[in-house]
């Protein structure tokens, strides 16, 4: 095989800096402003609704008895899922020395952070009495003391998500330090014209200097740095698997037919990575177009991600099948009813069959286009599929939460779930909130790990130098 | 409540009562905080304050932590003199009675700090034995109804202006004095004193002055029928407990007919499959509560109840004493089994078989007929036939006792007199019309033209508690008190009841007796009038002593009844009977009374509206019940709004597809569709009286031919149960008696149970508390053979546990708050299905799924097996609700009390139960407040709780004695005995949750 | 040096504050709460010097949920004849308000001191009855929660009466007094 590396960019370091730092150092484009305005409005709408529900109560949502969980929990699971690809790419692929990760890991990690931030909103705002949320944390108190219920998966969620978020944050920031140092050094050769410009630059200089925590880039620092990254990677690897396993236990440990399934943890993790990669794909395609980073995020990168999507997609499909097989095999009438009801193959109407079939088409059928090289190297196709997959994954959670709850054990208590304007508002607002942060990120920080790219380049040069 | 010291807490004497009144005034300048010792400064909204605390407790406390603020200062205002029986925090029970147009309902009222908070049945009463209906429990909210008349009013020019009641009465006296033609239109009264006071007013003006009518028609029909067939207008004692075979033709005696609570108790006492179980056969149009509980039910076409009765009579006639009676022969002649079958839609063979069964049970059977839904325009006709049948079978005097009747001297006027009065009004021949708690504009058939007629009356004086449809037509409205505010007496079943006020009038109102005394110009107060002028004729012995006893007991048995000789049936009565001879074509309407609203006189009670109809589970509405076939052939679907019209009058109501309704028959409930009764009742449902027929022979509620057309679709009907099929899950188990005789486990469905303790977590260890140290094992057994689904328990629960009403929209969303609901499933073919009922409340599972998933430990298992719910620890994740297989947990989606509850409604709240704020889960607690009250008492007296002292609200409310609660760890208790029965099963036991509620399989006696 | 002090001092201070709040010291804000009452009634004099039994006034303590603040007629049992100036007619100044109220047929509005949140249920009777030993004056039992009222001129709260306070007692008396620990013992 040739030593010529498909990922090599073949540009001098300075140019790499220029390319990657362009969006950070130049003024925002019109396009960015539009996107940012949209995101912010959506976000504000969401906060408005949340504020209102704090004031008058959760009654403004469509949830009821028996369907006491609705869009909020669906969104929660969805966004936690999204938050998976990042750490997977930066930690696991790092450990496996997958070189193609270098140009996407930064963005993916950022996405993780923001996705988890979005997800973490929902458990809080879906509470009946959010102002009493401190009851959920185990701390010494004067009430006896009474402790939280360590049997409750919701409590495990609090720990799992907390850990995942903090570790991811540290990992991401550590990765950023050398690049921030680069930014710091490049700021010196900038002279603004206006007074305001000077002032702002001053602030920027200070912040960047603080954030760079005195990085000098000496061999020693690099040594420590590499070690530390390795350790963090090792730390966060198990988390990738743990978080969504625990989220899945919210359902798996219950007695409700359709939730009560042992397959859930692996199934959810696969699903999470599936949707996570889809999201990364979407974002990558956009940013490489907008910020002319084609030479950094090549077709090859996208193709690899497409393959991961195909793989996880099939894992998810397998999990679905298992669910049905288990239901059929269990001989448990109630369980079987729930799955018939999902598919809509009953003698009477099953009001949510459509959601199942949407999920099925999006998650089970669509990834199989990735078998064909022609398709998986076609940007448009990839873009569409990446979005379709995420729609499908959202509906997967819809199917699990709503269709399982709306018809459980006693037919007398069966009822419908009809979302209200508030539900939809928050659903959209959540995306606004996510992109609000992401858009700020691409303007403020390098969305590709400069240092790592350079390192790889250097490696290539050496390989060329001695190779035959 | 403190059952064993009830009597001790009742008043010993009037003086005691009077003294306490005095203290009440002294205790505080305000009228309400009668004897409130712990009186919170800001307003008297004791309960509101509690609730506010609940909502912001944690927050405010932690605030306190930050700024070291003190809790809001509260004031304590003790008595000046404390009456010995009034101890703060300890309820006082008053034995009294609800005396109204329905009859006499003996009740026991629980009062805390001088305010009545709960109405219960009077267990010691010889006839009712503590039986109650949903209707009875609902009374408490009518007392505290914010829309009640707060003072009298006078119509000057166009609109009303308030005047105080004393002046109003004075004015009335003036008006009456001057007038020449004074007429009184009123509802029936069963209070001797009221009648006497009234009669002395009427005496001066001739006997025809007063017209008494019956909106629902049940009683008037019965009185008329009895008069026709036996010569005396009484309501005899129907002894359902003495009958082995009961045949009901349209009479909904378990739901709405005459005294359903008593009949339910009697009937259920015979629903024990291990003893001599009775059999109930029902022929009716709209499925009523009685029909739903029938062992065999015959759906018959609307307007053919009389035909069915005649057909049955014909079958029984041969070989009886009346076999050769000409007029009897003539009357039944046309109705051969085949003919009857053709008209009613029942198989001829079925009629014959029922007749055969009846013949076997001569003197041990009972045939009842009648009710609103059978009024065919000839008042009492169906009664006559029913009486004929009973006389033929020799039931009269055995299962029908007439020597001490339930209700005597029915003072109903004949329909002709009513028609005459309306004519006089039309022609302006009436100067003054006094409406005595009557609302004819609302509850007389529109056909009578009362609406127009009343406008031609110069002076209309209304004695009313709401400014209802009729009162708003009046020139003078005199505000009448609630029965819990007024002295009264009642006489029924030979028992004389003294009704005492439990609280001084909340507003400027007077008791009806008082008002009539003044109108009659008698110078006496009503209390003395009752005691001195009336009580004497019922009580024996020294009046003072006897009266005091009657007062503290709540009743005095004046005459004891029992079986007696049979009466002579006047066959002549049959001659006038005209029954249809052809099956009716097209859509035929029957109007019926609903369990929750009745004849609509209390239409402003939100709890009545929130209570789902026992059969259809629809609330906040009446609806057009049609058969599936009709719906399909006309292209109607659920969610359509239909317009029902008859002779130019029409109303709109949503459709409901009713199983067990004959094709071509349509049913609609009366009592809905108020226009002006209050903020709750106005515009709820449609007024079915618009469609009823009216003639001088009687109103027509049954067999009205109507046109129906769809006017709108996508209409939202609020219902608490959308799915009626059990999907073979064995939730409500049932078996025919024959099977049960062979196998006591009949009807049970075997599941491969997980072994107990095969869960992730260990089973609960109840030995935390040392043995014999007051440890209890609380459990409940519900006998589905007895349960009729009457929903009395549900309302009793609402009242005991401060459960909020949510309103139509929220119920539509599936957010009703009822802690216990009655599941109703249909089985069998839709033409004539079997209905099954099961009360479902929190099952207090041993392996409760809710307990494991609550992150904050807000719901935990108690060492006595209760599933505790600590509201103030709940943060509202609703995970427990999701994970509850029974879906009995309720979430407070909105603030239900603060700002929602209008003064004085908050006084109906039970101070022993925390009022839940927004954002917390609530659920049935097995009335833990009662358990704790008893435990605290037992503990301070160093004993164990005795079973008789402790009843849950639902158990206490159940007229059928289907619910038994108690310590199932103790072998002596009744609860344990029921718990151990082989019929028992636990709902969803296959999920291994191990409920602490056992259901006893419903046994059906198919004869 | 100064910088160092801040660097270390501030976090320590914050941490300390946090722990203090966490340990739930806040209900102690109620301790020592002894507001001025409409009538200057001295428990020290009555319960202490005269050694009257608590139950003479607080009649409900062994029979009911609430101990009950006495109705004025109980005060008047004695004060129709005692607590007057030399002239035997005009009451002592501090008793004047009581007499005024009595003549007006009203009762004084006492300020509540021991005040449980409304979702907590406490019934006096079972506690007092099961804790009191034969032959011992009631106040020995009352002390447990109300402190030595007999020595207080103006009554004030001495115990936090927070959940921990109740629970600790219920915990240790579990075996001896068969006390409950589950939620619905106090919250329902």
Topology of this structure?
The complex is a heterotrimer of chains A (468), B (1007) and C (188).
Chain A: H1 13-25, H2 30-56, H3 71-82, H4 84-95, H5 102-125, H6 153-187, H7 195-211, H8 219-252, H9 264-290, H10 299-330, H11 333-343, H12 353-365, H13 373-376, H14 379-406, H15 421-444, H16 450-466
Helix pairs in contact in A: 2-15, 3-5, 3-9, 3-14, 4-5, 4-8, 4-9, 5-6, 5-15, 6-7, 6-8, 8-9, 9-10, 9-14, 10-11, 12-14
Chain B: H1 6-9, H2 14-27, H3 46-67, E1 75-76, E2 92-100, E3 103-112, E4 115-121, H4 134-137, H5 139-143, E5 152-156, E6 159-163, H6 165-178, E7 182-186, H7 192-203, E8 210-212, H8 218-230, E9 237-238, E10 245-249, H9 260-268, E11 279-284, H10 289-292, E12 296-299, H11 305-317, H12 326-332, H13 337-344, H14 348-360, E13 365-369, H15 381-393, E14 400-401, H16 415-426, E15 432-436, H17 440-443, H18 450-455, E16 459-464, E17 476-479, E18 488-492, E19 495-499, H19 512-519, H20 526-534, H21 543-553, E20 555-557, E21 588-592, H22 606-610, E22 624-626, H23 628-634, E23 641-646, E24 649-657, E25 665-669, E26 702-705, E27 707-712, E28 734-736, H24 737-742, E29 778-783, H25 792-800, H26 808-813, E30 821-827, E31 834-840, H27 849-853, E32 859-861, E33 867-869, H28 879-883, E34 890-891, E35 921-922, H29 928-940, H30 953-957, E36 963-967, H31 974-979, E37 984-985, E38 997-1000, E39 1002-1004
Parallel strand pairs in B: 7-8, 7-15, 10-11, 10-13, 11-12, 15-16, 16-17, 21-25, 22-24, 28-39, 29-38
Antiparallel strand pairs in B: 2-3, 3-4, 5-6, 5-17, 9-14, 18-19, 19-20, 21-26, 22-25, 23-24, 23-27, 29-36, 30-31, 32-33, 34-35, 37-38
Helix pairs in contact in B: 7-19, 8-15, 11-13, 11-14, 11-15, 13-14
Chain C: H1 2-22, H2 43-49, H3 54-57, H4 72-79, H5 96-104, E1 110-111, H6 124-131, H7 138-146, H8 163-172, H9 174-177
